[in-house]
Amino acid sequence: MINTVKRNQQQSLDHLDDVWLFGYGSLIFKVDFPFLERRPASIMGWARRFWQGSHDHRGTPDQPGRVVTLIEQAGCQCQGMAYRVTPDTFAHLDHREKNGYLRFFAPLTFTDAPDHAPAEALVYVAGPDNAAFLGPAPIEVMARQIATSEGPSGRNSDYLLNLDDALKTMGAEDTHVSELANAVKALL
Ligand code: SIN
């Protein structure tokens, strides 16, 4: 139940000059959109999990891969990257994130200025009610699925290892991601 954020998928953003976008998955390491500014940031109350199926990017309908979504978890802080973008950027992003993700406004804290008043940022979340949601599985099962899946955007293992590297480079290591990355490396 998403109760701390405002659902905004249908609302027009055209009245705004710019909007903050919070990225916590491929939006950190695959930046194929223009932005005005980029700053490390975090959101509270959410955990990053490889619980979303990918039939269109890192897997196929027959063999879906696993990509990240956010799961509500009190007290948990998810670190990622915030981008200030113009509203027209969301035409491309909505298409890219189309397999089950909806965007919502959530409060965001900038890592480089934690005392500043939080901004609001759009974040793409694939909730448990979407058709591609896979949910939790034992780490060995997730690792095997990621090690063997591939789709039009490339190998599922590259998605995981690129994300793990990017988070470590930012000083934002996430144990869920790094444990899975270690398990996948052992299989490759
Ligand atoms: C994100 O990166 O913020 C959303 C999930 C993804 O595209 O991997």
Describe the structure.
The chain is an alpha+beta fold and 188 residues long. It has one domain: Gamma-glutamyl cyclotransferase-like (Hypothetical upf0131 protein ytfp, Roll). It has helices at 26-29, 89-96, 139-148, 156-169, 175-187, and strands spanning 6-7, 19-23, 37-54, 65-85, 102-110, 119-125, 150-151, 154-155. Strands 2-4-3-5-6 form a five-stranded mixed beta barrel. A two-stranded antiparallel sheet has the order 7-8. A hairpin with a 2-residue loop joins strand 7 (150-151) and strand 8 (154-155). Helix 3 (139-148) packs across helix 5. The longest helix has 14 residues, at 156-169. It starts with 5 loop residues before the first strand and ends with a helix. Residues 1-8 have low confidence and may be disordered. The protein binds succinic acid.
- Looking at CATH, the homologous superfamily is Gamma-glutamyl cyclotransferase-like
> Which CATH first-tier class would you pick?
Alpha Beta
Written as H for each helix and E for each strand, in order along the chain, the element string is EEHEEHEEHEEHH
Mean pLDDT: 92
Strand content: 35-45%
Cα(first) to Cα(last) distance is 37 Å
Second rung of CATH, namely the architecture = Roll
* Whole-angstrom Rg: 16 Å
Q: How many helices in DSSP terms?
A: 5
Q: By helix and strand content, what is the structural category?
A: alpha+beta
What profile does the largest beta sheet have? 5 strands, mixed, barrel
Low-confidence stretches: 1-8
Any idea of the CATH topology? Hypothetical upf0131 protein ytfp
- Give the strand tally: 8
Helical coverage, percent range: 25-40%
Please, how many domains? Answer: 1
Going across the biggest sheet, name each strand in turn.
Answer: 2-4-3-5-6
From the spread of the alpha carbons, the general shape counts as globular
The unique ligands bound to this protein are:
succinic acid
